[in-house]
Amino acid sequence: MAYSISKEAQQLLCEIINQISLTERRAEQIRIQLCRKTSFNPYASFKRLDLMNTNQIKPEQVVQLLKENDFFVQELNTLFNKTFLKEFLNYQDFLNLILPKTDSELREITAMKQPTKSAVEKQIDYTLAQLFNLEYNEAINLERLKTRLSNQYNADQMFQSLDSLNNNILNFKDFDRFFRRNGLLLYEEELIAFFYRIDLQRTGQITLNEFRRMLEPLQRSEQPISTNTLQTPKQTISQPKFSSTFKDQVGSGNKAGQIVQTRTFSASNKKKFQSTRRTSSITESLQTTKLTENFLNDEQRFIDLGLEVLKLEMYLEEIRLKLQQQKDFNTMDFFHFMDLKNKGKVNQHEFAYFLEQIQLKNIDVIDLFNYLDTDLDGFIRYSDVSEFISPSNISSTYICKKPAKNSHLSYSISQLFSKTTIVLIQLLFNQWNANEKIIRQKKKQFLNEQSLYQIFNKLDQYKKGKFNRQDLQRFFDLYNVKDDIKLLYKRLGKLNKEINYKEFELFFIN
């Protein structure tokens, strides 16, 4: 009989499985993009990271790769060991990381390339850094979910809740049954991606040991312990309350838990103790002042970031408006030029081909595709394209009222649009790409979780666990910023939806 667990724990496990599946699908997109580059050579990329020529890739070498490509990772050694289950990667481990799993032909072609030690192109270097960055960021996100779950049930109990046949293995049907029991649906490709991550033996079944490894959080002893009294979403450090009489009885030299034998001080000892206590009070006051100053600096940095995002988004809005004002431009025609097979949706490969057709070579395909793919299902739809390409202050009726030419006929880009319109389309995508690089650089200073939570707490003044557009506007008003923050709020979440802490945090780490 299956072990019974709470509804909250079941939902949390579903979230973990979904997150693992999504990570694998995103990683697979990067692997395919990397291996399709004709100049990509796996061995050359491995030796580019193996700076000490030891035939091993170590955490510090990955750090250097990430820094050179404007990425940042916290707790690298711990995450490296947890993500790859090793202290270093050899060449075979590296191949398993970068070769596609779903495209066997591309995997074989890439693996069979003649080893060389030629220089690695910048674009290949960046894509490789993207793959490592994805693995680390998702490891951090998963760690938080797993820690929450481990506080309620252990891995064995969770395993038993899925193992309805009590045969100590889990297959596709077990997971499908578990998701349906929670009113959710896990598509076949999502389940396959999940098994690629967890089923290391490729048996189509997950054992108890594999399941334990999936749910086991990092050792608490490896996590840094905060010494201040500020609260974060993970921890609440409370200070014990003592009476004033007891405080006067404890000398500064006493260790925690040590019983004080004497109840009175001599005049000299009392004077010495009061002096020590005064010094301690001054130190605490200075520390509190420093924390307050740091928090105010964090607030100011957030305001600066918000203003930078607003400025860049407003420039994009101007380009969008000019594009919509072009007589020959139609959003539906634009989408159908992407949707070559008239399926109503565009995958990453079709999107990459579209960018080639409009001669955009320096755009990061994966970043742009993931930005447009708002529901993260691996496809871009008309609504996604329309939202990206349309100004926020223009009605959808104005955009749709111009009739499309003929969505069932194939046109070249020059047949659909004039040169001026094509230039505006190119300018919109190039400007978005440039904006993202600037914003990513600005966001680096907010990777401290404590600082993020403090700002979120300030925005969430009613302590609902979320904030809305009016709350964000009110926060900016405190700093005499009177600009409409609509475009900034749109970047943080959705205009008609409140933003919770997880969504707020994702803006800074993605």
How would you describe this structure in keywords?
510 residues; mainly alpha; Recoverin, domain 1; two-stranded antiparallel ribbon; 24 helices; 60% helix; 2% strand; globular; calcium ion binding; EF-hand-dom_pair; EF-hand domain-containing protein; EF_hand_dom; EFCB6
Describe this structure in words.
Among the domains are: 208 residues; 63 residues, Recoverin, domain 1. The chain is 60% helix and 2% strand. It is globular and about 65 Å long. The protein is mostly helical and 510 residues long. The strands form 3 sheets. It has a two-stranded antiparallel ribbon with strand order 1-2. Strands 3-4 form a two-stranded antiparallel ribbon.
- Report the span from N to C terminus: 42 Å
SSE pattern: HHHHHHHHEHHEHHHHEHHEHHHHHEHHEH
State the shape: globular
Low-confidence stretches: 220-266, 268-293, 395-401
The main sheet orders its strands as 1-2
Number of DSSP helices? 24
Strand content: under 5%
Query: How many β-strand stretches?
Result: 6
* Major beta sheet summary: 2 strands, antiparallel
Q: Helix share of residues?
A: 55-70%
Radius of gyration: 27 Å
Protein name: EF-hand domain-containing protein
GO molecular function: calcium ion binding
Domain EF-hand: 186-221, 326-361, 447-482
Brief summary:
Residues 186-221, 326-361, 447-482 form the EF-hand domain. The protein has 510 residues and is mostly helical.
Q: What is the topology?
A:
Layout lengths: L6 H29 L6 H8 L9 H10 L7 H9 L6 H8 L5 H8 L10 H29 L4 H8 L6 E2 L1 H10 L6 H11 L7 E2 H8 L28 H6 L17 H59 L5 H8 L6 E2 L1 H10 L7 H8 L7 E2 H8 L6 H5 L12 H4 L2 H25 L5 H11 L6 E2 L1 H10 L7 H7 L6 E2 H9 L1
Antiparallel strand pairs: 1-2, 3-4, 5-6
Helix pairs in contact: 1-7, 1-10, 4-7, 13-20, 13-21
InterPro entries: EF-hand-dom_pair, EF_hand_dom, EFCB6
GO molecular function, one term: calcium ion binding
Protein name: EF-hand domain-containing protein
